[in-house]
Q: What sequence folds into this?
């Protein structure tokens, strides 16, 4: 859940500014508690909004003063409004068999290459947020409303846009965000209190079509022996070919990663197919795009140095035929 909130915070910081280069402060809380939380953060030793101290007006006068000075508007608050299951994009009963290699190092070890991380597919949930913008000037408020409108210009009937969300294990993805009621609400009191400064407030309700990620990843073996040669082979032909070289991923039964798991066959045995015949898989360890008709292989000497993290992390270069 938290990664959607961080994505929302980053999106707001990158779109709305007090002055160019100085994002409007964003706090998570109800509209009634927003300013009090802002003041509490402003008074801390590690003030997360201390970058505003460098902000000056046209005459060079600082616009923000350190605590105990009261922080100023504008301010953005974000409130969680609930979560709704999205069944038409849900696939949680299925399992990802090959999310990525179980390492992010620059050099992939053979036991990592012989394994793959596995988890359940994501569950689709709608994350609802209420965004409130506070200002003391009507022109500042009008600028916010106009800029917010332009963020959803990718409209196909519903105002919508896409933001980047960094998910654990599967990386960064673009996720759709839209206005559920296709509107932006004016929440400024018609008659302000006589003893208070006029406060302009605008409310925007958004829905982020996010996903709940299964973070209980399992690391499972996927390869036992790599056979390097030219061309392709069927299941029957694999037992007939004369390989140029082979790499045993469990040399001497001394692979601690794979031996720590249950039901791993001993050397000299073959894995038993669970359903029908075993699949033929061609592994490309070189650069470029894997091709079932012309796979790219590295020599054993080059392979021993591993492959770069850019090829190792993400979707493995395993081609199934």
A:
């Amino acid at each position: 859940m938290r990664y959607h909130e961080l994505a929302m915070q980053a999106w707001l910081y990158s779109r709305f500014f007090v002055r160019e280069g100085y994002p409007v402060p964003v706090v998570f809380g109800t509209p009634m508690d927003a300013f009090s939380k802002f003041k509490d953060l402003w008074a801390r030793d590690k003030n997360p909004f201390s970058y505003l101290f460098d902000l000056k007006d046209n005459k060079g006068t600082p616009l923000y003063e350190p605590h105990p000075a009261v922080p100023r508007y504008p301010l953005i608050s974000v409130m969680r409004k609930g979560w709704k299951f999205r069944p038409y994009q849900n696939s949680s009963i299925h399992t990802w068999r090959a999310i990525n290699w179980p390492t992010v190092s620059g050099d992939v070890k053979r036991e990592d290459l012989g394994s793959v991380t596995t988890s359940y597919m994501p569950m689709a949930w709608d994350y609802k947020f209420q965004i409130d913008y506070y200002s003391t000037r009507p022109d500042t408020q009008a600028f916010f409303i106009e800029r917010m409108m332009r963020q959803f210009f990718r409209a196909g009937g519903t105002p919508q846009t896409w933001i980047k969300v960094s998910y654990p294990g599967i990386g960064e993805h673009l996720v759709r965000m839209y206005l559920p009621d296709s509107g932006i609400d004016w929440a400024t009191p018609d008659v302000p209190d006589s003893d208070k400064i006029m406060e302009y407030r605008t409310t925007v309700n958004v829905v982020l079509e996010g996903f709940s990620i299964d973070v209980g990843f399992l690391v499972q073996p996927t390869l036992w022996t790599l056979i390097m040669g030219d061309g392709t082979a069927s299941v029957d032909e694999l037992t007939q070919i004369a390989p140029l070289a082979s790499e045993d991923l469990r040399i001497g039964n001394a692979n601690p990663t794979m031996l720590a798991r249950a039901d791993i066959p001993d050397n000299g045995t073959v894995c038993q197919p669970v359903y029908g015949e075993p699949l033929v898989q061609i592994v490309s360890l070189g650069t470029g795009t894997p091709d079932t008709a012309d796979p790219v292989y590295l020599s054993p000497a080059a392979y021993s140095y591993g492959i770069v993290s850019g090829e190792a992390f993400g979707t493995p270069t395993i081609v199934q035929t």
